[in-house]
Amino acid sequence: MKGITVALFCAAFLLSAIVAPSNAGAAPAHEAGARFGDVEGREWVLMGLRRGADNIQMDREHLAEYGFGEIFTIKFEDGRVSGMGAPNRFFGPYTVGGNRALRIGSENGALATTMMMPLVEPDVLREHEYFMYLSRVIRWDLRGGRLELYTSSAAGIETVLVFVPK
Fold it and tell me: 109-125 as b/e, with b when 16 or more CB fall inside 10 Å?
């Protein structure tokens, strides 16, 4: 009887290991106890995007060589968001909700921007794409000291904007 119990326990353990999904490739869980106050009052710099299976990194050193050192930033403070596109500044309201919900811009997601025409834009991300992503943000998270804004592409593909503190 004791041998059958041990065999059943081992079989159940092995079956759960086979059936349970592996978290080996998953992103780490959000930082325990993180509040949006941890995000506010700091300037954040975009370091990359995760779009579907693509992981696009911003080579900040390369961008700086071409005069793009201070682009794609964001700052949240007192219900207002502001930052830099490439080359235009943007600003507007933001709203934080439960379960890390976040809306950037007015009711329709619009942000106010300056209207300078870029002479050159970085290839990896165009300014209008950056503003579109910001207008579609639905939630935020902190992972390993990085701010992640969850949004979607024009095609509806989930996209994560990954920022580091400046």
Answer: bebeeeeeeeeebbebb
Distance CA 147, CA 53 (A): 20
The C-alpha atoms of residue 154 and residue 102 are separated, in whole angstroms, by: 19
**Cα–Cα distance, 166 to 148 (Å, whole number):** 14
Q: DSSP letters along 85-109, please?
A: -SS-EEEEEEEE-GGGBEEESSTT-
Is 27 part of any domain?
no
The residue range of the domain holding 41 is 35-165
Looking up residue 59, the CATH number of its domain turns out to be 2.40.128.270
Question: How many beta carbons lie within 10 A of that of residue 138, not counting itself?
Answer: 15
pLDDT per position as a tens digit, 93-147: 999 999 999 999 988 778 999 998 877 777 788 899 999 999 999 999 999 999 9
Please state, in angstroms and rounded to a whole number, the distance separating the CA atoms of residues 152 and 166.
24
Counting the structural domains of the chain, the total is 1
The first and second tokens of residue 69, run together, are 């050192």
The reply to whether 11 falls in a domain is no
Assessment of whether the complete model's pTM goes beyond 0.85: no
